[in-house]
């Protein structure tokens, strides 16, 4: 018997199996939606837009979409896993079994990151294919290590945040309210589709308080080698967000109720 | 007390105050190793609340619970490892199959390779043919058995059964109780709640009657019956007689048929002597022992008016 790794890996495996069982909803749907974004914004509309540094709009969009896929899916994975467990009652099992809050958080968020990276990776390849067919060359990755760092840390933040929101939520409605009214605006205003440098000064200074801006630009730096924000600052903000959300998630697991709805 | 370290379950002075209800008003019970202990009480008495505290789903307002000497609040890991829990409400597991659910559950308790144990339980509980089904594809009785299998994967030494036979047919109920007997022979300590008092009477070494969050009586099942219930004595005579109505044990009847309720401990001969029935006049004598249901009714209806 082993109370350190076995419970952790069991829960980790369970979480992966969970999203694999609903693969249409968890992987295929996001794949379709990012393909649509790429086709409409990147290939059709984007041809007429040329950014500074002579980068085509498509190359600006791809990193943003990759990060958006990662973040969205990481959040969705932890939050819907917990909320549906609240609904069916097996969240009670987590509390009754000798699982520790850290084991639960690590297992849930690492499985969520895996799903995020899976969908993000698919988005990246669809983006590469679009880029290749439009410009005849592939879009390279300038800083693979930085790219991976931003993708993983950002996804962990959103996975942790998903844990917090799911424990707080009293209904499915509240959960979708958070992802619709909080996350989506933050992601869109974080510069997935446009550069914050094009915003009016007031909105630009407001955007600087959006942590998503730093995460998304970190990924942009990783792929393109250039971004709206300095990479060091982006890394620092992302790291702080990661520590903060981890702290919140642990606190939540120690205090929140595991009882079913 | 040093001996308390040996108790399978030691609940002392537990109070559970919900926002609107005081579900437990200072409950203490002790379950010895290898014992089958029945926690009996009407709906809303506080049985599930107590079990929720033992498995740490709820935190007691005050009081202490120990499982094999381990405080469930302070040494929860150790206490949890020893405890198996069969909830009153069926737990659904979404997309997972019976086999997966049991495997995961073992894993949460640190059982790395649970296949052998899972297969064994699937066989014992008659779930083998259903192992690839999801919970919602099982019948109510199968779901119950799955809950029991889940509680046993990690070989707990204390099993908490919260109405394991609710919604279960006669045949399965019988087999489940036989299974509980088997577990007892394997040395597992069991705390169970049920509304089937006849079965509780047959099965439980000791019972506690709980009502409005308070333990009304606790003890060996037979002794409680002796102490709290009465035996029914029906007397049929050849010639009608008068005057038995003033006897303290008189219940009903007149003329040639009389019914008395007497203490279980009171010998029949004593009643006969008090009534001074001539042997020649005696047509028929029927004696019915008290049972747990009488004890239950006695202890849970007396104070109903107070609330
Ligand atoms: N989560 C809760 N919040 C508030 N009150 C609760 C909660 N759970 C139970 N109660 C109250 O506590 C009291 C005891 O309930 P409990 O579920 O322990 O009864 P029980 O003995 O298990 O009854 P039953 O035989 O119906 O299962 C009831 O008055 C109930 O309304
Ligand atoms: Mg109950």
Describe the structure concisely for a colleague.
With 261 residues, chain A is mainly alpha-helical. Chain A has ten helices and no strands.
How are the elements arranged and paired?
The complex is a heterodimer of chains A (261) and B (307).
Chain A: H1 5-21, H2 23-45, H3 57-88, H4 91-96, H5 101-135, H6 144-168, H7 172-189, H8 201-207, H9 211-224, H10 231-255
Chain B: E1 9-17, E2 22-31, E3 36-40, H1 47-54, E4 62-67, E5 70-71, H2 76-82, E6 83-86, H3 98-108, H4 115-124, H5 140-152, E7 158-162, H6 170-185, E8 189-193, H7 197-203, E9 206-211, E10 214-220, H8 221-228, E11 230-237, E12 250-254, E13 257-263, H9 268-275, E14 282-288, H10 292-301
Parallel strand pairs in B: 3-8, 3-9, 6-7, 7-8
Antiparallel strand pairs in B: 1-2, 1-4, 4-5, 9-10, 11-13, 11-14, 12-13
The structure holds adenosine-5'-triphosphate and magnesium ion.
Residues 47-48, 88, 162 of chain B line the site of magnesium ion.
Q: Could you explain how this protein is built, in words?
A:
The complex is a heterodimer of chains A (261) and B (307). Chain A has one domain. In chain A, helix 3 (57-88) runs parallel beside helix 6 (144-168) and helix 3 (57-88) packs across helix 9. Chain A has 261 residues and is mostly helical. Chain A contains ten helices and no strands. In chain A, 77% of the residues lie in helices and 0% in strands. The mean pLDDT of chain A is 92. Chain B is of the alpha/beta class and 307 residues long. Chain B has helices at 47-54, 76-82, 98-108, 115-124, 140-152, 170-185, 197-203, 221-228, 268-275, 292-301; strands at residues 9-17, 22-31, 36-40, 62-67, 70-71, 83-86, 158-162, 189-193, 206-211, 214-220, 230-237, 250-254, 257-263, 282-288. In chain B, helix 3 (98-108) runs parallel beside helix 5 (140-152) and helix 8 (221-228) packs across helix 10 (292-301). The model of chain B has no long low-confidence stretch (mean pLDDT 93). Classes of the chains: A mainly alpha (261), B alpha/beta (307).
């Amino acid at each position: 018997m082993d109370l350190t790794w076995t419970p952790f890996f069991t829960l980790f495996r369970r979480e992966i199996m969970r999203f694999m069982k609903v693969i249409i909803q968890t992987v295929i749907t996001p794949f379709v939606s990012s393909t649509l974004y790429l086709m409409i914004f990147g290939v059709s509309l984007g041809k007429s837009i040329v950014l500074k540094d002579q980068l085509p709009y498509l190359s600006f969009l791809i990193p943003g979409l990759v990060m958006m896929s990662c973040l969205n899916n990481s959040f969705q994975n932890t939050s819907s896993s917990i909320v549906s467990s609240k609904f069916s009652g097996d969240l009670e099992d987590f509390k009754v079994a000798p699982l520790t809050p850290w084991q639960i958080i690590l297992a849930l968020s690492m499985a969520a990151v895996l799903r995020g990276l899976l969908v993000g990776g698919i988005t990246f390849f669809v983006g590469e294919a679009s880029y290749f067919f439009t410009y005849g060359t592939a879009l390279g990755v300038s800083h693979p290590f930085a790219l991976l760092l931003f993708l993983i840390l950002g996804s962990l933040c959103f996975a942790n945040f998903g844990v917090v929101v799911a424990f707080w939520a009293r209904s499915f409605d509240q959960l979708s309210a958070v992802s619709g009214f909080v996350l989506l605006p933050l992601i869109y205003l974080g510069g997935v589709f446009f550069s914050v440098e094009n915003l009016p000064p007031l909105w630009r200074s407001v955007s600087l308080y959006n942590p998503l801006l730093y995460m998304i630009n970190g990924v942009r730096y990783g792929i393109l080698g250039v971004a709206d924000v300095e990479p060091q600052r982006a890394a620092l903000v992302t790291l702080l967000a990661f520590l903060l959300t981890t702290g919140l998630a642990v606190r939540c697991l120690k205090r929140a109720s595991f009882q079913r709805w | 007390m040093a001996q308390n370290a040996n108790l399978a379950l030691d609940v002392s002075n537990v109070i559970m105050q919900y926002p609107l209800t005081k579900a437990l008003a200072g409950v203490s019970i002790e379950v010895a190793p290898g014992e089958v202990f029945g926690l009996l009480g009407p709906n809303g008495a506080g049985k599930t609340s107590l079990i929720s505290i033992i498995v740490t789903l709820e935190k007691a307002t005050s009081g202490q619970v120990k499982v094999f000497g381990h405080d469930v609040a302070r040494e929860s890991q150790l206490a949890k490892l020893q405890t198996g829990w069969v909830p009153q409400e069926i737990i659904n597991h979404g997309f997972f199959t019976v086999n997966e659910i049991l495997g995961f559950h073992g894993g949460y308790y640190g059982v790395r390779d649970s296949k052998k144990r899972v297969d064994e339980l699937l066989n014992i509980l008659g779930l083998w043919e259903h192992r690839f089904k999801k919970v919602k594809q099982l019948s109510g009785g199968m779901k119950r058995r799955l809950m029991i299998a889940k509680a046993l994967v990690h070989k707990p030494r204390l099993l908490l059964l919260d109405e394991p036979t609710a919604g279960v047919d006669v045949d399965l109920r019988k087999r489940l109780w036989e299974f509980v007997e088997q577990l007892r022979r394997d040395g597992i300590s069991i705390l169970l709640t049920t509304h089937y008092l006849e079965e509780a009477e047959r099965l439980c070494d000791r019972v506690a009657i709980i009502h409005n969050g308070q333990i009304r009586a606790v003890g060996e099942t037979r002794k409680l019956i002796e102490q709290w219930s009465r035996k029914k004595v029906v007397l049929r005579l050849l010639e009608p007689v008068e005057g038995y109505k003033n006897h303290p044990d008189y219940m009903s009847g007149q003329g040639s048929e009389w019914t008395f309720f007497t203490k279980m401990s009171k010998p029949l001969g004593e009643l006969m002597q008090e009534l001074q029935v001539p042997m020649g006049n005696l047509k028929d004598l029927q004696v019915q022992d008290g049972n747990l249901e009488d004890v239950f009714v006695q202890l849970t209806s007396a104070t109903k008016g107070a609330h």
